[in-house]
């Protein structure tokens, strides 16, 4: 294997110092690869090389690269993402079909467990009525309703999503009302309001995922074709329109791109907006802090963190001050929510019979021990990741630590809704650009959707028993843990890292890219590796 020239950048010299002979024989690098050259996956990925044979095979040695007037890797990736999103819409469209009831009224056809049998379920459809978005004059966090009215379990409810996601739903509902009014006048095609709402929402979610894919390609820099992994991900085929998570992935991915372009304030603005849509973009500040401390770039982290906090407060404070009860609903529900069927705690509880995670909950009860255990495990994982960030022989890449933190949150959290796996896709593509491995994991994760749907269908309706579903969950969790182990292995043995093999330090690192270390933990393993 030809390692990058030690004279190219400090990271290449560090990699050369800590590489063992075994490492140097592990990953082939094309002899034609030069500093600054775009990396073609047909030359570095055997899986892609084999898949390219029907269209002419791997890139030729004398091929003209980057000269086509229109088709660039970004445009090809976005076209493939558009096709994947279209297929996802067709998969969900079965759940917005309608039928005429005995009274001659058009109704949504969810008869005979259709969402589960057709595996087309999407939260967007039931939330349209559940969150009172179909009613005129409502506003998220102000409008309330009573669940289980007339029973001992009755309790007051509000919009359950973070502010930006809640407002997104409300705007889509208003666009739906406008569309229905115009269609009633004969100027637009008509459909059930909930179907119109789903289509409008799906359009904007698709735009958000296209932004995510675009940002991944730009952040990957010399590896723009890696964005195809995000574009055609099996998880996108299944979950792009399951919930509203592509909004958060778009903000998180563009926030990382802004950081890579050395714009820390803009990165903070985008991460703050992402945290106002879903909480997980806030976790990316942790890896940034570790790496900035190690490189002596704390002031850049402070700008990003400050902008994140200011933007999050700017979005949340107006609602928190004027509609406090509704604003607190998201935090209350997450505190009182029990373990999700997809969580490792439910797996342990089911297969061991142990009810130590607070057991069945009544409305208003808080699973105290479950919250303590899940929170403590996540903090322990974060502490371990921070140690890795400080003790690794070469400073880890930003995407590597970000992937580890988000994966740790999902594995240790009491809730792992299926669409949460989308959070990992952009980070995994940037952290572990191994095509066959990532496509295999994403396919496995996406396939969990089938047993989940048939588990919800119920055994009485020829569905799957819970142990079958949970067995798939265990395999999914083990696959994610395996990816984390691989990332840690590449952190400690950077000569196995495909990104650094090409001579780059950290394409997503921004001010961290190529920066020397100022502070690091000199562990025994680190000292032996450097010798």
List the helices and strands and how they pair.
Layout: H1 10-18, H2 21-24, H3 41-44, H4 46-51, H5 73-93, E1 98-100, E2 106-108, H6 114-117, H7 124-130, E3 145-147, E4 155-157, H8 163-184, H9 193-220, H10 227-231, H11 234-239, H12 245-260, H13 264-277, H14 285-295, H15 298-322, H16 324-327, H17 329-336, H18 344-352, H19 368-391, H20 398-412, H21 424-431, H22 435-447, H23 449-457, H24 466-492, H25 498-501, H26 524-530
Antiparallel strand pairs: 1-2, 3-4
Helix pairs in contact: 5-9, 7-9, 8-9, 8-13, 9-12, 9-21, 12-13, 13-15, 14-15, 14-19, 14-20, 18-24, 19-20, 20-21, 20-24, 22-24, 23-24
Descriptive account of the structure:
Belongs to the glycosyltransferase 87 family. Keywords: Cell membrane, Membrane, Transferase, Transmembrane, Transmembrane helix. It is found in: Cell membrane. Helices cover 58% and strands 2% of the residues. The protein is mainly alpha-helical. The chain has one domain. Helix 5 packs antiparallel against helix 9, helix 19 runs antiparallel to helix 20 and helix 20 packs antiparallel against helix 21. The longest helix has 28 residues. The two termini are 21 Å apart. The N terminus and C terminus are likely disordered.
User: What is the makeup of the main sheet?
Assistant: 2 strands, antiparallel
Into which percent range does the helicity of residues fall?
55-70%
Q: Which structural category fits the helices and strands?
A: mainly alpha
> Which geometry do the CA atoms define?
globular
For the secondary structure, the number of strands is 4
User: Secondary-structure element order, as H and E?
Assistant: HHHHHEEHHEEHHHHHHHHHHHHHHHHHHH
Number of domains: 1
Unreliable segments of 5+ consecutive residues: 1-8, 20-33, 527-531
Q: Could you report the average pLDDT, rounded to the nearest whole number?
A: 87
Strand order of the largest sheet: 1-2
Q: How large is the radius of gyration? A: 24 Å
- Number of helix segments? 26
Distance between the termini: 21 Å
How much beta, percentage-wise?
under 5%
GO molecular function, one term: hexosyltransferase activity
Pfam family, one: GT87
InterPro entries: GT87, UCP010361
Membrane topology: Multi-pass membrane protein
